[in-house]
Design brief:
With 319 residues, this protein is α/β, with parallel strands linked by helices. 49% of the residues lie in helices and 14% in strands. Bound molecules: flavin mononucleotide.
Length: 319
């Protein structure tokens, strides 16, 4: 069984990838998407989104990190895909699932699920351009408004030569509303030979088992669940217990140091709040802390709050 850490724009940056793969259980990471319009992007753009390119396309724990591209123009996507692998990405992933209005308006992301032929042209162009040793994967939702094209889209992506297909088992219109329709993935699997990775709404080891059963797929991708429970992959693969809150707090301190040093604190407040918005689903202590944290904007205030929580915990432990 392979577990892939999902791309999550604005949340799963290289520091988050570093930390989660250090905890372990992930076989592959996909980066946040890089938007391709009508040019070959300079190396610095790839390095900004995927600094792991400078260390062999892997996190320090040794997990490969594949660059994800989003766009609608087959040739520009192909050129940028070649650049990504030349810069050290162990393959390329193509995003056909992004629901953002701004992206869809310019014909990128999930809106392409209405254009089966374009999906084919894009995957084919990228597959033909990238050396065969490098995987070219695609990530889709079940459709845009409905599932009328689900099977045709999957077949087109398979016919174009994709190495694997991740299916987020909801339409764009479903947004992130539960459930994820895992049995749909089983239907797709009956129609194509491309290996499929099941994605959507896996929050616990029990969810992972049910998803595997209903989708008939071994391999899964974890998104928000990986943030809600930092050792979710291990709980799935090894039956580990859920990471206790004090350990999560230590991780948060570690992440904060990293994030503030790495980006000089520019994105820290937003990113740590985003992370908390998932942690609070799993940990009551995170929900309590989030009430105070959400109004803070300065890195040092957030750090002070986390330190106070740590001191409180140490005190209550020694009592
Ligand atoms: C904040 C956020 C950002 C995301 N960014 C991306 C992205 O850059 N590329 C992509 O293919 N999917 C993106 N996704 C979708 C996730 O990769 C995943 O398919 C989705 O969250 C469903 O999986 P989950 O239920 O395990 O979270 C994003 C999702 C969220 C919530």
């Amino acid at each position: 069984m392979q577990i892939v850490l999902a791309p999550m724009e604005g949340v799963v940056d290289h520091l988050m990838r570093e930390m989660l793969t250090q905890i372990g259980g992930y076989d592959l990471c996909i980066t946040e998407f890089i938007r391709i319009v009508d040019q070959c992007l300079p190396a610095r753009v790839f390095h900004r989104i995927c600094p792991e390119l400078l260390q062999g396309g892997k996190t320090r724990a040794g997990t490969p990190v594949r660059v994800q591209l989003l766009g609608q123009e087959p040739n520009w996507l192909a050129e940028n895909a070649v650049r990504a692998v030349e810069l050290g990405s162990p393959g390329v992933d193509l995003n056909f699932g992004c629901p953002a209005k701004a992206v869809n308006k310019s014909r990128g992301g999930a809106v392409l699920l209405k254009e089966t032929e374009t999906l084919y042209q894009i995957v084919k162009a990228v597959r033909d351009a990238v050396p065969t040793a490098y995987p070219v994967s695609a990530k889709i939702r079940l459709g845009y408004d409905d599932t009328s094209l689900t099977l045709a889209n999957a077949e087109a992506i398979c016919a174009a030569g994709a190495s694997s297909l991740t299916v987020h088992a909801r339409t764009k219109s479903d947004g992130y509303r539960p459930p994820a329709y895992w049995p749909w993935i089983a239907r797709i699997k009956q129609h194509i030979t491309t290996p499929i990775i099941a994605n959507g709404e896996i929050w616990t080891a029990a969810d992972a088992t049910l998803c595997q059963q209903q989708s008939t797929c071994q391999d899964i991708m974890l998104g928000r669940g990986a943030l809600a429970m930092p050792n979710l992959a291990h709980t799935i693969k090894q039956g580990s217990v859920v990471m206790p809150w004090p350990q999560v707090l230590e991780l948060l301190m570690h992440y904060s140091e990293f994030e503030i040093a790495g980006d000089k604190g520019k994105y820290y407040a937003n990113r740590v709040k985003q992370w908390f918005s998932y942690l609070k689903l799993q940990y009551p202590a995170a929900a309590r802390l989030f009430q105070q944290l959400r109004v803070l904007t300065k890195s040092h205030d957030i750090l002070a709050l986390l330190n106070a929580e740590r001191a409180n915990m140490a005190r209550s432990k020694s009592c």
